[in-house]
Amino acid sequence: MTIAYFDCFSGISGDMTLGALVDVGADRTILDATVEALRLGDEVSIEVRHEQRGHAGGTRVIVASQDRVERKLPDLQGAIVDAEIPDQVKRPALDAVGRLGRAEARLHGTSPSEVHLHELGGADTLVDLVGAFWLLHSLSVVQVYASALPAPSGRAGHMPLPAPASMRVLEGSGAIFQATDDTRELVTPTGAAILAVAAQFARPALSLKSIGYGIGARNDPGNALAVWIGEESVTQTGVTVIETNIDDMAPNLIAALCEDLMALGALDVSVLPAVMKKGRPGHVIAIIATPDTVALLTEHTLRHSTTLGVRLSKADRVIAPRRVIEVRTEFGVAHVKVKELGGKPIDVAPEFEDCRRLAMESGRDLATIMRSVSEAARIALGLT
Questions:
Q1: CA-to-CA separations, 211 to 186, 216, 219, 315, in angstroms, rounded
Q2: Euclidean distance between CA atoms 60 and 58, whole angstroms
Q3: Mean of per-residue pLDDT scores for the chain
Q4: What is the pLDDT of residue 368?
Q5: In terms of Cα–Cα distance, which of 86, 45, 50 is closest to 62?
Q6: CB distance 340 to 354 below 8 Å
Q7: DSSP secondary-structure letter at 29?
Q8: Alpha carbon distance 344, 379 (integer Å)
Q9: Is 170:31 a contact under the CB 8 Å cutoff?
Q10: Which of 200, 146, 196, 154 is nearest to 179 (CA)?
Q11: What DSSP assignment string belongs to 101-157?
Q12: Alpha-carbon span 381 to 321, nearest angstrom
């Protein structure tokens, strides 16, 4: 299974994504096909060239609008719906545009159909989104993964950082942020929308085939986005298990601690009931961490719980390949995680948030929705 890993060490934008995917091996003519399919030939021109940012060299894609025409959300959606592009490109592009519209609407207190999208309403937004998903499709990428995103602080002019629009777009996506000393916007709304739709925020085990670098507009050393392309592997990887026993902390505070640890990059957090000294009821908190997050998660546990110490132990884990598919049911569209062994699907797991959304929209029981989505996935995969 072909996967892509977005290493966002200097942030992400739409044009950086296009550049990285072309640099990694996608056909540059897909960008021209995108402009043609969206009927933007009289409005947009595309330039592709090699540029350096310090020691990082890669592909720069410049999407230039001749006469900028600002569009509202329905206009952007209509252009994508009418475009002659693969369904596997059209669906995520519509999802991404919808996220941009809803984010701006919440920020400005208006409806998505009426919100003024400012620079996000230009033709370059359409090209960035449709082009990114089309390039990924052309590379046969089944699943996208992404690194933590840099989170600057302070203000850029009158705008707080990280940019509110980008944060709204990423809301609920599971995105992980790392503080940076930079004082500029590093994650644009368009780049955020691509990741919010397509990415899981984790570093996968992969057999590397190629790597590409998309060069950003700022002429700063290292201003690039790296995209790794490879095959997901069933591998035995090393992790660290961080454990601690707690008998003097309220359950609601333990629940909050677990959520915070997951947000900081823990692979998993579990809480088990235990009988402590003198017969006291308590809990054992177990955190599974990658080597690069052990120190951060340990420090957070010590600082934000009542424990006086933790236990660290090394462990190996075997990871089964997985991919995400989209299925259509009578209640709507949902994503499903597919577990594979030997290159063949063996089990499915509906995405909970998708099913919960469909349950709320349809008024049906959540269990009914999850069964329907699971059955649709099994039929699609031939598992029935």
A1: 21, 16, 21, 30
A2: 7
A3: 91
A4: 95
A5: 45
A6: no
A7: H
A8: 14
A9: no
A10: 154
A11: HHHHHHHHTS-TTT---GGGGSHHHHHHHHHHHHHHHHTT--EEEE-PEEE--SEET
A12: 15
Q: What is the largest CA-CA distance in the chain?
A: 79
Task: Give the distance, in angstroms, between the CA of residue 139 and the centroid of all CA atoms in the same chain.
Answer: 18
Whether the pLDDT of residue 66 is over 80: the answer is no
Token couple for 339: 């577990």
Structure tokens at 288: 């599974």
Q: Which residues pair with 187 in a beta bridge?
A: 12
| Residue-level pLDDT at 342 | 67
Q: What tokens were used for 170?
A: 């990423």
CB atoms within 10 A of CB 9: 18
Alpha-carbon distance 256 to 381, whole Å?
Answer: 38
User: What would the two tokens of residue 263 be?
Assistant: 């947000």
AA letter at 320: A
Confidence class for position 198, pLDDT limits 50, 70, 90: very high
For residue 260, give the H/E element and its range.
helix 251-263
